[in-house]
Amino acid sequence: MPLIQVIVGSTRPGRFADKPVAWLADRLGRRDDFDLEILDLRDHPLPFFDQAVPPARSLRDYPDENVARLGQTIERADGFIIVTSEYNHGYPASLKNAMDHVFAEFNRKPVAFVGYGNVGGARAIEQLRLVVVEFEMAPLRHAIHILPELMIAARQADPFSPELFSSLDQRLDTVVADLLWWAAALGAARALPARA
Ligand SMILES: Cc1cc2nc3c(=O)[nH]c(=O)nc-3n(C[C@H](O)[C@H](O)[C@H](O)COP(=O)(O)O)c2cc1C
Predict the structure, then answer these.
(1) For an engineered disulfide with 116, which of 51, 112, 146, 184 has Cβ 3.0 to 4.6 Å away?
(2) Has residue 133 been placed in a domain?
(3) Residues with Cβ within 6 A of ligand 1?
(4) What's the domain count of the chain?
(5) Is residue 24 part of a domain?
(6) Ligand 1: distance of its center to the CA of 61 in Å?
(7) Taking the model in full, what pTM does it have?
(8) What percent of the chain has a predicted confidence (pLDDT) above 70?
(9) Nearest atom (ligand 1) to Cα of 119
């Protein structure tokens, strides 16, 4: 069974991220065709990048125990859904800092995106698509963009219910179908002998 990880990019107190993540956990938790893990970067305290050797060269050998644990967590996933905010038209530094700490663990795996903000996080997602290519990942064409109207409704709801995002359910089904196809294809390819 493939393992899909939802990576929570924002770590700030009071983050909006918890709402789309609650919706994803609710919807994806009902599925029985893959396993789901939430990778909350708050659970992985990291320094501002200070490793002496670039992770693309150290290849899973990390002196920092938190980095090693993050790497082992990412290693076991077959595909990812990155939940990203947009800060000044880019992705959050917390997400990029975490990604920079590892490398091989992401290689040849697919990634989909859920963004939110004034343009549904579209600018952050476009930038992330460029970043993940360097990780030899396959960024999906389809993404989920949560626009301000839904963000306002979600912020005002007390308590928040995943039903508030039900208009996105169909889109999520499309994204997940695509992600699972790529996870199967690349999982089979990763099992082949390593390239020279
Ligand atoms: C430093 C900073 C920069 C921001 N820049 C943008 C932006 O460029 N585009 C946008 O749509 N929202 C922007 N926002 C508003 C965020 O969309 C909003 O604060 C959102 O809740 C951030 O996600 P988070 O709460 O999960 O961290 C910015 C927020 C912060 C804190």
Answers:
(1) 146
(2) yes
(3) 10, 12, 15-17, 85-89, 117-118
(4) 1
(5) yes
(6) 34
(7) 0.98
(8) 99
(9) 11
